[in-house]
Design goal:
heterotrimer; A mainly beta; B alpha/beta; C mainly alpha; A: Pectate Lyase C-like; 14-stranded parallel beta sheet; 4 helices; B: Rossmann fold; four-stranded antiparallel beta sheet; 10 strands; 36% helix
């Protein structure tokens, strides 16, 4: 009973302090408190720190109590390249509206503009991060939100640049409406499950727009990935939903809209792959449903390498790709059905909207190009058309059961 | 007028002209005769620059014709087969040749002379062989050049037109022009030519008047004289 | 030369073949545009047609024109005209009238369709430019063939063979040699191989602006450098110009030494 009373009193103290004693601490260049560090040390739990407009040369700021830090008119926190700038080690921290610049670069430590370390229930929003190494680094974090941030790096080389938003052993993180550019990886998830990545724009990044490693049950939807070095890589992960994203303009030697490697049981629906060297590059991925995606003007819409079993490609639009599908073997265990292929030349006499002749999306030439890439220079040559035609009539090098038995006559609209 | 020295021409293995020397003086009608394949047309075409000789020189009006085209302003040439762009109208063809060479107004007289008026608006592709030959003649004679070369001028002509052609040739001769003719019609040659040149196996076998030829061969008749040359040489 | 050009051109412009050719392109582009209603796809299909048919028509038409106008040429030869002007005039007459049929036949429907408001205009202009180049190149080749062959049948046969070789057989040999030597660096070899065939050259040039640029990056640095920059475009155009100049030069050379 005594213990209960003690506990109750404690609880009441905490609650009242939260409700009535919750104070606002102001930081400005001419105030009594002129640094964020000072403000944090003076603030009590659940206080709000308002940082006024100005420039604050600070780094290694540790947020070790539940605080709300709000920047007014984007005050600049300048780390002067001396290392990490803000590290959050407490639960219930909100960081909002800061403009953080000049994160230190290191080859031994991943300095970030803002790091969340082993905490829960945080919110990081409306930040502008520039001149950075890593941007937002979530380390073993849970139940957090990363909203409306703008991360603009100046990455030139992969080995000495970091990622804009990095998740490491984190769970249930909600990443929305961020704009990440010119870093190594736009968004990187490693061992992070049950995350939602939505409405982000990831462009002009050195390596991947989005990068998954060993992360399961995540959803990413309505994002736009444009002109990244290699596109989006989803590797060694299970049960990922990829919905309504746009993958655009990933040109180059090893470039693709999306790379799937060792991905099982995923759902890829409603995405648009436009003007990529390779739309989707698939390696060792099984039981994936590809539905209602648009593949427009890619070099290869889909390139299948290695063992891929029981995948279903249904109701997609393949529009004006140089090659629709490429296989490097002549064994096929995947289903292609009811897609629209702009290269289809068959007819529909019974007017049911389905072509009367099956379509073979794998051309002999794509097999040749796989073997000897330089032969690509003969693309659309009459000779190539002739050998493609003869392969179509009697397949030798390409899987003879790989065909769409119900190719649609009209482009599918949703 | 025309001077040819040591002219050689080979077509493949075929020696067509082998050392032709020929001088044609100004004024008069010269007929170049010879059996088929004796090199008549080749000789004429060499003078016109259409055939490039292997060896030898040709000069027209005192100037070497090598690498020159302007001297052809002084030559009117009637080709053997008249085949014109079939899309053109007669009128247009005449206008075009006038445009390509120089201005002349002889064409109207010639058109009347050969009664070509009804055909002026017809396309060349629709004309008969004889009418085409008449157009050909108009094109040749409408320029007042000192040297006229006629390759088989009589082919396809009806008797009346033939008469008109003869008149025309005579009147040109009267103007002091030099006229070079090849023909298979011996009577025509005998009638109009002042001097003949007989080609045989790529060389000049005979050059002189018809009377001289008759004396040389001992034949009283021109056609027989020609025949005797051929039989003597091919027996 | 200009006079000959003028007459050859007018002559051809009135000939039934020019209309057939014109009508063919007109029909082709109308069908492509109004059935497809997608400009960029129409451009790709047109490219396939252009790189195969334009050379064929250029060669056949060139040879045909030369043989058909043989007597007329002889008439001209007897006129005080330079040989080079006669043949260049005729050549340009044929090449220009063919090009005009091509440009108008393809261009009119596209203009009606709203080409100027579309961003396919550059692709389309490139298509027209290479088509014109191909016409000039293959007409020149045809004249060369005809000048070298008195025999009509032989000339035609040879012309078809040249077309067949450059349009199809060359690519077959090219592909085979690329596969045989696949263990060696091939990018330079394939670039040279492309440059040596005007059809391949045109095809690559058009594809550069369409879809190949995405794929060429895949094959390595040399390609990327060559085709990714204006350098490749300029070199390709220079090669096309050379492909016109050399046959034309040979027309002049050959015609000066030919007997008629």
């Amino acid at each position: 009973m005594k213990r209960f009373l003690q506990h109750s009193i404690l609880l009441i103290i905490i609650l009242t302090s939260h409700l009535s004693l919750c104070q606002v601490v102001e930081v400005c260049n001419n105030c009594k408190i002129s640094s964020l560090k000072d403000a944090i040390s003076k603030a009590r739990d659940f206080d709000t720190i308002v940082v006024k407009k100005g420039t604050y040369k600070e780094h290694s700021i540790i947020v070790d109590k539940p605080l709300t830090i709000i920047g007014e008119n984007h005050p600049v926190i300048d780390g002067e390249l001396k290392g990490e700038i803000i590290t959050i080690v407490s639960d219930y921290v909100i960081v909002d509206g800061l403009h953080i610049i000049n994160v230190g670069t290191s080859y031994t430590e991943d300095y970030a503009a803002i790091r969340v370390k082993r905490t829960k229930h945080f919110e990081i929003k409306n930040l502008i991060l520039e001149k950075l190494f890593f941007g937002i680094y979530l380390e073993k974090a849970e139940d957090g939100k990363v909203y409306n941030n703008k991360v603009i790096g100046q990455a030139v080389e992969e080995h000495n640049s970091g990622n804009a938003i990095q998740l490491w052993y984190s769970k249930k993180i909600d990443i929305q409406n961020n704009n990440v550019q010119h870093v190594r990886d736009g968004i990187y998830l490693e061992f992070s499950d049950d995350c939602l990545i939505k409405n982000n724009v990831s462009a002009n990044n050195l390596r991947y727009g989005l990068h998954f490693m060993f992360s399961n049950n995540d959803i990413y939807e309505d994002n736009e990935f444009t002109n990244n070095g290699a596109g989006v890589a989803v590797m060694f992960s299970k049960k990922i939903k990829m919905l309504n994203n746009v993958f655009k303009e990933n040109w180059g030697t090893a470039s693709y809209g999306m790379l799937l490697k060792e991905i099982n049981d995923a759902e890829i629906k409603g995405n648009t792959f436009e003007k990529n060297t390779i739309g989707i590059n698939i390696e060792g991925s099984n039981r994936i449903n590809y539905m209602n995606n648009n593949f427009i003007n890619n070099g290869w819409a889909i390139k299948v390498r290695g063992a891929c079993y029981s995948n279903k490609f249904i109701g997609n639009n393949f529009l004006y790709n140089s090659f629709d599908i490429s296989y490097n073997s002549n064994i096929n265990d995947n289903t292609f059905d009811k897609n629209y292929w702009s290269n289809y030349t068959g007819y529909d006499l019974d007017k049911n909207g389905i072509g009367d002749v099956p379509y073979r999306p794998v051309k002999l030439f794509s097999y040749i190009v796989n073997r000897t890439p330089e032969t690509i220079i003969l693309l659309r040559s009459l000779f190539i058309d002739i050998i493609d035609f003869s392969e179509k009539v009697s397949p030798v090098f390409t899987p003879d059961n790989l065909m769409d038995n119900h190719p649609l006559i009209k482009k599918i609209t949703w | 007028m025309v001077s040819i020295q040591n002219l050689h021409k080979k077509f493949g293995k075929n020696n067509v002209l082998s050392g032709v020397n020929l001088d044609i003086k100004e004024g008069g009608i010269f007929a170049v005769l010879g059996p088929n394949g004796s090199g008549k047309t080749t000789l004429i075409k060499s003078v016109l620059g259409m055939v490039i000789p292997d060896k030898g020189t040709i000069s027209v009006l005192g100037k070497s014709i090598k690498n020159s085209s302007n001297y052809r302003n002084k030559i009117d040439y009637l080709p053997q087969i008249a085949n014109f762009p079939s899309n053109l109208k007669v009128k247009e063809l005449i206008k075009m040749i006038k445009d390509l060479r120089s201005f002349t107004n002889h064409d109207d007289d010639l058109i009347t002379h050969f009664k070509l008026e009804p055909f002026l608006d017809k396309k060349l592709g629709n004309l008969s062989g004889g009418t085409k030959q008449k157009v050909n003649l108009v094109l040749t004679f409408m320029f007042d050049s000192p040297l006229i070369i006629l390759d088989e001028p009589t082919s396809g002509l009806d008797p009346i037109s033939l008469l008109r052609l003869k008149d025309l040739i005579q009147s040109e001769k009267a103007k002091g022009k030099t006229i070079l003719i090849t023909s298979h019609i011996m009577s025509f040659v005998e009638e109009i030519s002042d001097e003949i040149v007989f080609l045989l196996e790529g060389q000049i076998y005979f050059k002189g008047t018809i009377n001289e030829l008759k004396t040389k061969t001992g034949q009283s008749d021109f056609e027989h004289a020609i025949a005797s040359i051929l039989t003597n040489n091919h027996a | 030369m200009l006079k000959i050009l003028k007459y050859s051109f007018y002559d051809l412009m009135r000939s039934r073949w020019s209309y057939v050719y014109f009508a063919f392109y007109l029909l082709l582009s109308v069908v492509l545009l109004f059935l497809n209603s997608d400009l960029s796809k129409a451009v790709i299909t047109l490219m396939n047609v252009i790189i195969v048919l334009v050379p064929l028509i250029g060669t056949i038409f060139g040879v045909m024109y030369y043989y058909n106008s043989k007597e007329f040429t002889e008439l001209l030869l007897a006129q005080p005209l330079k040989r080079s002007s006669i043949f260049l005039g005729q050549y340009l007459g044929v090449a220009l009238s063919l090009s005009m049929s091509l440009v108008l036949g393809l261009g009119l429907p596209f203009i009606f369709y709203g080409l100027f408001r579309s961003n396919a205009i550059w692709d389309f202009s490139l298509l027209i430019i290479t088509g014109t180049f191909l016409t000039f190149i293959f007409t020149a080749l045809a004249f060369n063939i005809a000048l070298s062959n008195e025999n009509k049948i032989k000339g035609f046969g040879f012309a078809i063979l040249v077309w067949l070789f450059l349009a199809i057989i060359y690519d077959g040999l090219f592909l085979m040699s690329l596969i045989i030597f696949e263990d060696y660096p091939l990018d330079k070899l394939s670039l040279i191989g492309t440059m040596l065939n005007p059809i391949d050259l045109s095809r690559t040039l058009i594809l550069l602006k369409l879809d190949i640029s995405a794929l060429l990056g895949y094959t390595g640095a040399v390609f990327k450098q060559f085709f990714g920059t204006n350098f490749g475009l300029i070199v390709s155009f220079i090669m096309l110009v050379l492909w016109v100049i050399f046959p034309v030069y040979r027309i002049v050379y050959k015609s000066k030494r030919k007997d008629f």
